[in-house]
Structure formats: C-alpha cells, structure tokens
Amino acid sequence: MSNTTSANPSKPNKKRKTNPNPETNFLISLQSCIKSKDLATAISLYESALSLNFRLSLHHFNALLYLCSNSATDPSLKDSALRHGFRVFDQMLSNNVIPNEALVTSVARLAASKNDSDYAFELIKRMNNEFNVVPRLRTYDPALFCFCENLEAQKAYEEQEITALLKVSAGTGRVEKVYQYLQKLRSTVRCVNEETGKIIEDWFSGQKVNGVSCDLGLVKNAVLKNGGGWHGLGWIGQGKWVVKRGSVDESGKCCSCGNQLACVDIDDAETERFAQSVAALAMEQEVKANFSESQDWLEKNANYEAIVHYTFVKGNLKLQMPPPYSSVIQESDKGSWHLPILFKGSSSQTWLCITRSNVCESRDEAQ
Q1: Fold of the domain built from segment(s) 190-263+326-366
Q2: Class for domain 22-148, per CATH?
Q3: Which alpha helices (DSSP H) does 19-136 contain, by range?
Q4: Separation CA 30–CA 23 (nearest Å)
Q5: Helix (H/G/I), strand (E/B), else coil: 171
Q6: What is the mean pLDDT of the chain?
Q7: What mean pLDDT comes out for the span 328-346?
Q8: What is the C-alpha separation between 149 and 117, in angstroms, rounded?
Q9: Which listed site, 30, 109, 154, 335, has its alpha carbon 20 to 30 Å from 68?
C-alpha cells in the first residue's frame, strides 16, 4: 500500500497575500488626499505616476479632478487648482479615457470658478456629443450659477453706465434722451439702486414735460403687444409731475396713487420663440407623453387671457397662477411711471411713484 499525502481538512489552504499594484496604491493615496483636502500632495503623486508610466484609469482622473474642483473654492489654492485641474483633464483626453457625468461636473465647476460659463456649457455639449455623457441637473449647476452671477454683475455695470448718461441728459435738459434712458433702464434691470432712484426723483420733481397726444386705443395696443408694463411711445400727458415714495400692496395696487401695476409678460415675438424652445426641449425628455398632454390642454384653452405657469412634479402637470403684478420698472398707458428701488444691504423695497398732477386731481375728485 503506497503512502500518499492528502490535504488535512482541518487546515484549509491559506491564500497568498498579494500586494496591491502601483495603480491601486496611487488611487488609495488620492482618496486619502481627498479626505485631508491635500491638493499639493495629490499633484505630487500625480507627477510621479506620470513619470513612472502608470496606467491611469477613470477612477484616478475622477479623484484628481474632484479634489481640484473643491480646492478651487479656496482663494489660496484657486490658481493651482485651476492650472493643474485643466492639465489633468487634457491628459485624460489624450489617454483616450472616456469621462463620466461626475468627471464632467467637476470640470464644469473648474470652469465656473474662473467665471467661464461659456466653456462650461460647451464642455457639457461636447462630452454629450463625443462620449454620449448624459448630463444631469447637477452637471448644469456650475454653469448656470456662473452665468447668473456674471449676468448680475453685467447688469450692475450697465446700470452705472445708463445712470451716468441719464444724469447728463437730465442736467442738460434733453427730455427725449431722459425718456430713452428710462426705457433702457427698464429693459436692463428690474429694480434701480438708491443712487439711480435719487437722480430720477430729482429730475421729475423739477420738470414739467408736456407729452404727445396719443390715441388711447393705440397706447393700450402698444402696451398689450409689449407684454404689459410699458408702451415706449414717448412722454404722455400734460401738467406737472407728482413724485412720491411709497409701497405697493399685495394685489399690486400703488398705495400712493391707487394705480394697479401690471403683471409684465414677454412680448409676442419672444413668447413664440420661448414656446418653441420649451416644446423642443421637453419633447426630448422622459416626460414626453405628459408634455404632449399639456400642449393639447393649452391649445384647447388658448383663448383664456390669464397666463398660467405650469411645471412637472413627479410626472404630473401642476398649474400655478402668476403673481398679480411684476416688481419691475413700469410705464402705464396714462404716462405714469413706477420704479422699484432696492436699497443696498436691505431686502426691503420702496416704490417711486411718478404721475401727472391732473391725474391725481381726477382721482381725488372721484374719491
């Protein structure tokens, strides 16, 4: 009987311990850098990995760009984070590594950190076209926030320019230019700042501008065509201006003159373009069937004069009525003006009410 060796069932074979490969160690180190927010060490490790010809995966690039985008919010690290972040992204593309949505979001955040919303939008479009990366709502967030911030800064700058021109025109008695710059303000900003409000208030308080005689129906049609809130036909009415500071109640009624402020909409051409854009966008989304139903509903109820806002909540159509008035600069069909003034460092709002004296007298007699 031959002697044979057999495995002892009470002592199972032990698996050999294998050391992680260099790429895995690099990823573990990057994750540690993320936890400690150590950008410098992460970049140093990345440089070493390149010199050693590591095979870098999507996970490596994701970790690096996530850390860079987070570090870009720190003023002391911003320049380094932006410089290295875009360099890492370019290296990833040259390595033919296909990005995912999380990585695209990180790069979009980097673009937003340097106030380049155009790059962020183009990046999302490019990644979708070239790599079929489907963006989520968070992917657009950095670009949208950046765009809004830049837009507000641009509006503030434009208001300063228009205010300066308005002040010069007011000082030299160029009444038609004053009207033009008021319209420019109306189309550029929703509210005026305190300085602009004071210039407008002073000018109207010392002026008696006789306006043109216009057919009331013509003026009302112009207001309707423009979406409400302005006509743009020039000064209307006769007599001195009455300038007051006051408030507007919840229904949109001016507490100074009693006029009802309008709920301003976009004009006819803009409405058509907007409707086409929304329809085209929504038809591409998962809510296609629900949106088609809402379009059918709107077509059947197109004769209603009231404007309704509609949104989708969990696939269901929700209707919400707009507010009774818009908190924007308004010009009425009677020639009066209402300008909301926003004070610096305060959320409170004061309205500048500018009407003709004969209009005020007629109102007082009616009461």
Answers
A1: 1.25.40
A2: mainly alpha
A3: 22-36, 39-51, 58-71, 78-94, 101-113, 117-131
A4: 11
A5: helix
A6: 83
A7: 88
A8: 10
A9: 154
